[in-house]
Amino acid sequence: MLTKRILSIITISFFVLFSCASYSYVTEYSYSSPIYPDWYSRLRYIPKNIAIIPFQGQTYQSISVASQLESEIRSEIVTCNQYNIIERKYIDNVINEQRFLLSGLSNYEAIKFGEMLGADIIMIGEVPYYYEEETYNRYAEGGSYAGDEYRRKVSFQLNLRLISVESGEVIYNLSQDFGKYHDGYKNVRKIKKSAPNSGVDWLDALATVANAVADLDLAISQGIRPFSDLRNLAVSDAVNYCGIRLISYCKKYECKYKIDSYGNKQLMSQDHIQNVYSR
């Protein structure tokens, strides 16, 4: 009788231990509370209607970049679906009818403009400069090849203002530089290589040449990126930089949990994976 009782206790204990050692793992997603732009605190109410004035530039190239920035920032704001964006056609009609000069538009003129458009907020953007540069870095050899290493770089400045039509206050002011660069090879050509001097370890020499050729071949295959590609990347950085300062959003987390056989959850990790629009 005692033996049976002992066996029962051992069996139950083993079952409990086995149950406690059994876990499953799940991944869930969670979101933070909405994070609002800092400039919201300067307003009595959350703005609904925003008028984006055509961005200005000082040169032909900066005008082109300004137009691209305006278009992509507008698209970003439309995507978030938080504001009513006044149509560009309507803005152009008011500009033509009232003969507004957008270059050097004062705050007072912007407020009057906003009142005509029925806007709560006026956005004014300008690109004072845009540069494309190409610089020679060095001459490089690898195996039987040689090339000239160059760097291509684009840079521009974005000035951005948000003006409250109600108060006339500049509620957000940005002046930020953006840019991208890429290193690559030009004028790649074959060159004659003399045989190594006697006494040179051939294995070391071959390994050195192989590594140099591999590095150079990789760089050659990449080439030098076109200025247009670098400009698009820099503009994308600027749009992302502005978006997080103009639009409310939530932080999205990937949460991994450990669950035992009793259904108890234990948070193992919580990784911030992206920002998502708060609507």
Structural notes for this entry:
The chain has 279 residues and is of the alpha/beta class. The chain has one domain (23-277): Rossmann fold (3-Layer(aba) Sandwich). 37% of the residues lie in helices and 37% in strands. The chain is built from six helices and ten strands, in the order H-E-E-E-H-E-H-H-E-E-E-E-H-H-E-E. The strands form two sheets. Strands 2, 3, 4, 5, 6, 7 and 8 form a seven-stranded mixed beta sheet that branches. A hairpin with a 4-residue loop joins strand 9 and strand 10. The longest helix has 21 residues, at 60-80. Residues 14-18 have low confidence and may be disordered.
Task: Name the features.
Rossmann fold, 37% strand, alpha/beta
Order of helices and strands: HEEEHEHHEEEEHHEE
Characterize the quaternary organization of these chains: single chain
CATH topology: Rossmann fold
- Major sheet size, sense and barrel closure: 7 strands, mixed
Number of strands: 10
Q: Taking Cα atoms only, what radius of gyration do you get, to the nearest Å?
A: 31 Å
The coarse overall form would be: flat
> Helix share of residues?
25-40%
| Percent in strands | 35-45%
| CATH homologous superfamily annotation | ABC-type transport auxiliary lipoprotein component
Mean pLDDT: 83
Tally the helices: what do you get?
Answer: 6
> How far apart are the first and last residues' alpha carbons, in Å?
70 Å
* Count of folded domains: 1
Low-confidence stretches: 14-18
Secondary structural class: alpha/beta
CATH-level-2 architecture: 3-Layer(aba) Sandwich
**The level-1 CATH class:** Alpha Beta
